Amino acid sequence: EDQVTQSPEALRLQEGESSSLNCSYTVSGLRGLFWYRQDPGKGPEFLFTLYSAGEEKEKERLKATLTKKESFLHITAPKPEDSATYLCAVQGVGGGADGLTFGKGTHLIIQP
Amino acid sequence: NAGVTQTPKFRVLKTGQSMTLLCAQDMNHEYMYWYRQDPGMGLRLIHYSVGEGTTAKGEVPDGYNVSRLKKQNFLLGLESAAPSQTSVYFCASSYSGQGGTDTQYFGPGTRLTVL
Fold this sequence. Notes:
The structure holds 2 protein chains of 2 kinds. Helix content of chain A is 0%, strand content 58%. By secondary structure, chain A is mainly beta. Chain A has strands at residues 3-7, 10-14, 19-26, 30-38, 45-50, 56-59, 62-66, 70-75, 84-92, 101-102, 106-111. In chain A, the strands form 2 sheets. In chain A, strands 2, 4, 5, 9, 10 and 11 form a 6-stranded mixed beta sheet that branches. By secondary structure, chain B is mainly β. Chain B has strands at 4-7, 10-13, 19-25, 31-37, 44-49, 56-57, 65-67, 73-78, 87-94, 105-106, 110-114. The interface between A and B is medium-sized, with 26 and 28 residues.
């Protein structure tokens, strides 16, 4: 059974204070690891897909990295508008469903 | 493109009532999914469809039925609502799932309360 654990559950940072969010996963053959951003009352918004260990992707102040056991979402010099819940999900090769297995998310607050 | 849309946005039901949630996508995606999101839990897959006329069970299918009569629409039905089905429901779609990895794009959600 695929599993995803995200830490910390919540993180409060000052504007400009860089940090990292962690996503640990177990999966029977990784097809893809996904990062989404979710604002209150909205649906998840796609950020990145990572396919293999060593891969990195960047978008503005966000950088996602992947190893064989975990992924990190690095946030550099965050702004208040980066406040959101960040979701990590995996898609494995096993099982009949092609849905994603999600973690519970990290609730990030950036204070001005 | 509107992307993935869901109707209604909010709904309150009494125990035992039935309803249908509608998901529509205009991206010509083959795969569509229904998830539920509950406090303190990750999104969980209810049912999914790999193409028009096909449906399959996900992780938490009990109490729900689905239909995919048209490629662009995916309906989620609750025949006899229970308080345990109080949740936020999200629909998602992707170009294809099997044999590849395609990004799933999500709708804005339907907040359902069952009293």
